[in-house]
Amino acid sequence: MIRACPLPSGSHRSGRGAGAGNQPPSMVFHMPTTPSRAHPKPKTKPWTRPNPKPQSARSHLSTAQKDAAQQRADEAGRRYPNLVDNMWASRHLAKDGSPKV
């Protein structure tokens, strides 16, 4: 949908481009904006945002979860698991090491 907005008094538009030929020259047409094709804004990094769980709801990784995080780090060429590996293990694996459903 195209909307016409009046120009402030004293401003003039000359030539074509102010709209259709039958519109008064004191109107400017605003085209609707299309979605940007730029990359979406990245999410906040996990190490910069606060922990969403209260202190009482936090728990340590089980041995199976630690082993899975270590394996994931090894596959990525890291010597130790990082925060993202640990977050993955806690989200995708149960305490006994079986996949969460």
Describe this structure in words.
Helix 1 crosses helix 2 (83-92). With 101 residues, this protein is α+β, with helices and mostly antiparallel strands. Strands 1-2 form a two-stranded antiparallel ribbon. The protein has a domain at 61-92. It is built from 2 helices and 2 strands; from the N terminus they run E-E-H-H. The protein has helices spanning 63-75, 83-92, and strands at residues 3-6, 27-30. Helix content is 23%, strand content 8%.
Task: Provide key terms for this protein.
23% helix; 2 strands
Globally, the shape reads elongated
Low-confidence stretches: none
What is the arithmetic mean of pLDDT? 79
Estimated structural class:
alpha+beta
Q: How many strands appear in the DSSP assignment?
A: 2
Q: Strand count, sense and closure of the main sheet?
A: 2 strands, antiparallel
**Tally of helical runs:** 2
